[in-house]
Amino acid sequence: MADNSVSLLAVFPDLMPAADAIDKLRALGLSDDQMNVISGIPVTEAMLGRPSQWTNVPRLAAGGSILGFCAGAFLVFVTPYLYPVPIQVGTQAFVPGPPTVVVLFELTMLGMLLSTFLGVFLDSYFPNYRPMEYVKEVSDGKIAIFFICPEEGREKFTQAMTALGAEKVEVAQVEHL
Amino acid sequence: MAGYNNKKAEPVHAKIESHSHEEHLREQHLMLDPLPRGRMNEMVMESMYETSWKFWVVFAILSVIVAYGLFYSWGKMIAEGLGIAGVNRPSYWGIFLVNTVFWIGISHAGTFISAILRVFKAEFRRPFTRAAELMTTFGLVQAGFSVFMHLGRVWLAYWLMPYANQRMLWPNLHSPLTWDLLAITTYLLSSTMYLFLPLIPDLAMARDRSTGWRKTFYKTLALGFRGTEGEWAHLRNGMNIFAWAIIPVMFSVHTIVSWDFAAATRPGWNSSIFGPYFVVGALHSGMGAVIMVLAVVRATMKNMKYFIRPEHFDAIGKLMLIISMAWAYFFFNDYMVQWYGGDKWTHQLLHFHEAGPMGWMWFAMLIFNIVIPWAVLWNQKWRSTPWIVFIVGFFINIGMWFERYIIIPISLSINRMPFTWRLYHPGVEIPLGIGTLAFFILLYMGASRLIPLIPVWEVEEGQMAHELKQFGRETVVSVSELE
Amino acid sequence: MIRPDEIKMSSDQVGKWGMVIDQDVCSGCQACVVACAMENNISFVGEKDSGYGRSMHWIRIERFWEGEYPEVKMTPNQPMLCQQCGSATCEPVCPAFATVHSQAEQLNLQVYNRCVGTRYCANNCPYQVRSFNWRDYKRPEPLTNQLNPDVTVRRRGVMEKCTFCIQRIHKAEDKAKSENREIADGEFTTACSQACPASAITFGRVDDPESLVSQLARVHGHGVKHLEELGTLPNVTYFKGG
């Protein structure tokens, strides 16, 4: 944070006022990456006129599925030949057809789902127990807009937000959740 | 957060009619009856905190049953061997495998509701996805116990895992049991992760509303979730991938379990229809179990009557009827083909099923799985009555347990060596099976105290998307696609 | 290290060790059952467990009859033991590789030290010849003196079955190797075959056309292999109705 800027948090009870507030903040000169929206339900970026959020989760999922496939391929294609004498069971081939399909499928899916899960954590920087800016009203369904504005303009921004229906506008406190 | 109404100006009498119709719709449908989020949060938290003495009595009784039936009896069986169970030649597998298949079946309902219904955008799933998904996780725990119980040397069960070992062996990938291990591990991990992801925002809500040890507990598990755009984007993306991907996993798991039997050379087992037959059977018993759990949750927990309404029992009841018909189709397919073109051993087996000493079980299975659901669930009023569908669900579960008992120990009694034909009589399997059931209920009761059972954020999301619209004179429910 | 292509699947071969059992001369005396139990340290399970289908005999005499009392007619007794299938259905289903096919002896092996006791192999055996150790059956002193030191003892939770007296096969092979010769036909035999007073069981090399086993199979001509329609390639030929 630069010397003369302050973090403000404006809490809105509903979608339309929040969307108007975003437009107003842009009109007052803030860029999109100086704002963040915290909400209790997944309000999509499009609803508030915000740019779409980038997420790495699908690519991580794809990568994980490839890793899973490789693990399965190792088990199926390599391990039968790691013995001094390949083990014969029944008269099935050492790399049997249908079991190959089953094992590859299961391990690919396991890789995909594990990496999706970990990808969500990774992208969101979970677990994050450091003190952060937050207001409890968010989990009660309010939409909080968190923005950085120059110190001198604080009054102007606060008034603008209140005029549009903000329930409260305060300096964002960094505290343990 | 209310939706907005675009009713046009109407003549007075029509307005009054549509007004009461509207009232009726709002009363019936949770999605049309929004409360402020804060109030819903409070209701869910209350349902966790407020615990009556009756809860603790049941908890204590179940704990005793689990201690004796599960832990003590299992310890005794490990010390003395499977001799105290009822398995013999030729029924080498008995109630332990029946319970394993049963619990995996129950767990499929959770995934059906939280994944398949999500993918099909069935809005009525919203309040109970977590309650169903909890059944998946806890059911798989019992399935795990049951399958480990049946091992002759369970203390060496880790030999089935791929790890660097002194035997210098990898697992045998030819064996359906190894596929079982991979599939069930994948499914257990996936469904637990899928349970946890949508839980995070509710844990954050619980964190914000609690103090003391609960706050520490929720704070740790909520991982610092705040609800920023980024966090929601990653979470929803992850949940979408899970919803789509866990469906093939769910199908594959019970298919692979069915292949434990279908891949064998026993008469009656070597049937190519076992894959889909078992999957549909799993959904059959699972949906029955879900409705039982929901009926109990609604009746015993505070504020649940707001979230879980007769409309939900109605919807699940319809699904139960359809699945019962599907089960009857697969059963008849399997039976007819064996009866018509089967060899002499298969005919002996079918005769043993129907007319042998356990023939009563065969008939009971058909009555509980087909006759009772079809007789009751066609009626919308009965479907919407929790205690009626509870009873139907109960009978379905008994019927499906009987079905698996018939497939495993009873079918094993008949093979191609008549000198070995012998009936199976359960021994220590009975306390152990009751122990797993008690443990399932115990885990669920514990979870109901610790975890918000209703995904409030998903309910609110649904309520935001639903509104009443005027189509001419008619007031109609309309759902927006928010995603 | 043997390359995979050097392994001949048992379905491509005649088999090595096999048996011929003449049901017409079998009197049902159970000497083979007793001899096998003594040779292979099989546990005594007691009357109750035995009546419940838990006897652990690796060979059993199956008795059937035709007709209703008093018009009952006995049919030939049927000694049933592990057929050492060339395409064993029990082998692929063990997750721990505890039952595998032996390249050297062309037998179906049971490796006690790998068995975790899933019992899938027993379910998948069409002949139902596998025995499971349901308990640790006691062998009170001085019965421990009769244990055969060539054969291990098994504990609870482990599957076992007939091995064609592999310990005798190995002993004979070691002796022949040390004397730099091949094993002669009839030099040794299995415990069951040795004990049978009617010589109903003949054991030997089925891949050697001059062995007694192969000659008997040719002479009688109406041998059957039980359940061979399942494709298990059993190595035991049965005669009856001669």
Mean of pLDDT of chain B: 92
CATH top-level class of chain B: Mainly Alpha
Assigned CATH architecture of chain B: Up-down Bundle
Q: How far is it from the N-terminal to the C-terminal residue of chain B, by CA?
A: 18 Å
- Cα-based radius of gyration of chain C, to the nearest Å: 18 Å
Mean pLDDT of chain C: 92
Largest interface: A-B, 65 and 63 residues
Oligomer: heterotrimer
Record the SSE blueprint.
The complex is a heterotrimer of chains A (177), B (483) and C (242).
Chain A: E1 5-12, H1 15-27, E2 35-39, H2 57-78, H3 97-124, E3 132-133, E4 143-150, H4 154-163, E5 168-171, E6 174-175
Antiparallel strand pairs in A: 1-4, 1-5, 2-4, 3-6
Chain B: H1 12-28, H2 37-49, H3 53-80, H4 95-119, H5 129-149, H6 176-208, H7 212-222, H8 229-262, H9 274-300, H10 304-307, H11 310-341, H12 344-355, H13 359-376, H14 380-383, H15 386-412, H16 429-450, H17 456-465, E1 466-471, E2 474-479
Antiparallel strand pairs in B: 1-2
Chain C: E1 17-22, H1 31-39, H2 46-54, E2 59-62, E3 65-66, E4 73-74, E5 78-81, E6 99-101, E7 108-110, H3 120-124, E8 131-132, E9 159-160, H4 166-178, H5 191-195, E10 201-205, H6 212-220, E11 223-224, E12 236-239
Parallel strand pairs in C: 1-12
Antiparallel strand pairs in C: 1-10, 2-5, 3-4, 6-7, 8-9, 11-12
